[in-house]
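so ive been stuck on this for like two days lol. basically i have the seq below and the ligand is zinc ion, smiles is in there too. i just want the complex predicted, nothing fancy, no docking runs or whatever. if the output looks off dont worry ill sanity check it later, just need somthing to start from for the group meeting slides
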Amino acid sequence: MLTLSQEMIRIPSVYTHEAEIADFVYGRLSDWGFEPRKVPVPDHGPCIVAEHGDPASPSVVLNGHMDTVEVMSGWKHDPFGAEVEDGMLYGLGALDMKCGLAALMMTFRTLAGSDALRGRRVVFQAVPGEEDLGIGTRTLIREGVFRNAEAVIIGEGFGGLHVVTNARRGGSYYDFHVLGQSAHGATPHMGKNAAVDASRLVCALEQMNLSESEGLFSDALEPLKETQTVLSIHGGGISLSVPDRCVVNIVRCTIPGGRIDILPELEALVSRLSLECEVDIEFKDEPGDFYKPYLTDAEEPLVRSAVDSLTEVTGTKPTLACGVSEADDNIVAEETGLPVICMGPGETGDMARHHRPEEAITISQLPAALEAYLSTVRRLCEA
Ligand SMILES: [Zn+2]
């Protein structure tokens, strides 16, 4: 497990550059006697898919992503060195998520060689572009690779082996288009300043009441809330003119069970402000601009199997958590309607260095993750 994780960390696979690691995963699965296939993804390395069992039987999907974010500043270890120091494995993707991917590969191999599946099928998917709007997983959904699936395990451990992520917030991206009236900058009273009204809007947005979920916890194990973030403001130019346009780009991270259609409350906010300018609100609906929150019921066999398995492996009952940032499980839940969870090796608190320098993982989690996956699938197949 450790060697396999190290081999993959040593292959740089910043998103859109996944071809080499895809070849590696393909080669290793072939060496193990499987017949993996490549599913092309535009502008990325391919997805690698391997299946075991009767194609007509219901399947359990094991999904992990091969890509990482870019190398950021602040690394002291070599981000592609995969060095082990004091029980920690350092490298870009150690948490996110090459160790999880290694554990899923080993799970697939072990299950295929056992009788644990009881007539079920297991499908292993290594995807590119998770950090790029989930394009790999979207491709596999479109290609029908989730057909006949009954449960999906994504091997990314937000919170490590003490957490099962069975829910995730959504994201609604929208723009305020503030339309004023230009005038000479020396006579501002002659115009309507879009930048000024946009600023009033931004301040009002910060004061909005956002809802809190009853009974759900974030993967940092804090009470789960909606959040709203101003991502950018663009308006005005360099000439001595009153800006007549300003665009404010915002994301609202929505919660399971909460309201998703937030347009009425935004319209009400705009009208309360009685701005001088016109304001148009534009919700975006391209892939990557809208994610629906999801919740896989705690009583689903998938969730119960995961909880019982982690309890057995770690000795502690894991917490059910809602991921705060959109990820591939949003896409799976929304597009396929299948029960889905994220679980796997990971860290909590300050050590949860996803997308941060000095990303590292406690190596003792690697065999534990494999045990937990095996036990989860076995229980699921017995259910
Ligand atoms: Zn990830």
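The longest helix spans residues 94-112. The two ends are 28 Å apart (CA to CA).
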